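Sequence only, no structure available. Ideas?
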Amino acid sequence: MASNKKYKNAYYPVRTVTDLKDMINSSADLFGDSPAYLVKNVPGGKYVPKSYNQLRSDIDAFGTALIDMGLKGKHIAVIGETRYEWIVADLGIANGVGVTVPLDRELPVSELANLAQRAHLSAIVYSAKVEKKLLEALKDIDGLEYKISMDAEKSGDGITSMKELINKGRALIRGGNTQYIDAKIDPDAMSILLFTSGTTGLAKGVMLSHRNIVAEVMNMSMYVHVNRDDISLSVLPIHHTYEFTCNHMTVLFQGGIMAICEGLKHIVKNMNECHATIMLGVPQIFEVMHARIWRQAEKSGKADKLRKGMQLAKTLDKFNIRVQKRLFKDVHSAFGGRMRMFINGAAALDPDIIDDFNIMGINMFQGYGLTENSPIVAVFRDRYHHGSSVGPAMPNTEIKISEPDADGIGEILAKDDSVMLGYYEDPEATAAVLKDGWLYTGDYGYIDDEDFLHITGRKKNVIVTKNGKNIFPEEVEYYLMKNKYIKEVIVTGEDDEKTGNLIVTAHIVPDMDAIIDDEGKMSEEELRKFFKKQIDDVNEQMSSYKRVKRFELRKEEFEKTSTRKIKRFGTNIGESEENTK
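Reply:
I predicted one. Tokens follow.
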């Protein structure tokens, strides 16, 4: 599909929905017995379909049972791996019962206990994979009435079976109970309480409404089209708004099919099994896939052929799908033969990787957002994009740059129907980011002549030198990460006692496999000399004031969120070594 300026102002038509309940009901009316989900009943088994009608029926039954239990208006958490039951539970709660509280299954016991208490939970729905640590976290939580297992066949020992509740709900509906089915949705009330995983400090409770989510779904659908036979492989944690809103809800709204991935190690295998056509991911996933293509080409002796093919595709027509599928049939075959679209989010991806996938015939683009905006603020159109930006503003979204500097860089502000209601029980934090209807994102960026948004870095990460220069660590990290011997890096500004200024410092996790393959084993001193040379080479690509002056080599990887973003704050960063020439 061409990236063409003629599509700059072209929107796909979408139907209007008022809330998530309206969205699910209308999708079931439109798409009926067509598959909504492809799931595996046993690990490694075959994918089996769940229809749109079955999805609606299961949601209605579960919600009916929850109301019958006295949970109307209550806060109910959902925690577990991405799976069909998670969606049924989450929408079952939100579409007529109370407030759903999605929790990150990777959280430690202490943090789960903290969030369960802060959220004032009355019940929690969970999977067997998190049961042990969850029950430990909940043992001292006040006010918790029900623990509902997605996997228990029968209720007992203080645990309620979700399967039994769905059967009970069906029986209640057959008997004439329509409390849930007839429940009215207030589109502007809090329906989702989502704690940010973030990479800094204490998690904040983001309050989202039905209007927030469906506005995002309709806007996303105006830019990105999903066909009825499209199959989107779900690989990211479902509790994040990026995966939940932009993948599951957007695909279900448009009548496509969601396939549940068995885990990050099974992405390529599952792509082939379900013949996926779409996948949302984060940089680490696409970087690994891109590197694997080239590594396989080198091993098979086809790297030169691949390079020539890419050059030929550029010369002929970068977006001629038929030509690309012939030239890069091995790549398409490895991804199941039908893959047509990759969407990157959570953090910026190297534009060269985006460009490579586009040349190979897989339409790839990215967007920018944050949980507080449900989440997308800007995204490429699927027919008009370029790799170095995060796209133009979403439809019906305003973006402006606050207090831009001489280069047009300032804090990004957003205004649309997807802006959160505020932070839960935290009016002070809410007032700091919501002003006159504008969401102050905390991110810095600029808007180019084509109205594409470019992200330069986080406001709280910026390094300000004594002479007033702003250095965005993310930019320096981008250049460092292009070096094949650097696996991970965090750039900070460290105090220099001699000058009283901030010194640009790189904290590096070396890729020892790549180093040993190319250079052999090294002593600690040899490794430091080797990296001094690598950093000197990288520095030549940057302005003098941005150059790395000190570096530290780490043996352990940085702590990460469940979407594989490095936690910049709270990370143990050790002593650095001066990088002097």
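The domain at 465-578 is CATH 3.30.300.30 (GMP Synthetase; Chain A, domain 3).
Hope that gets you unstuck.
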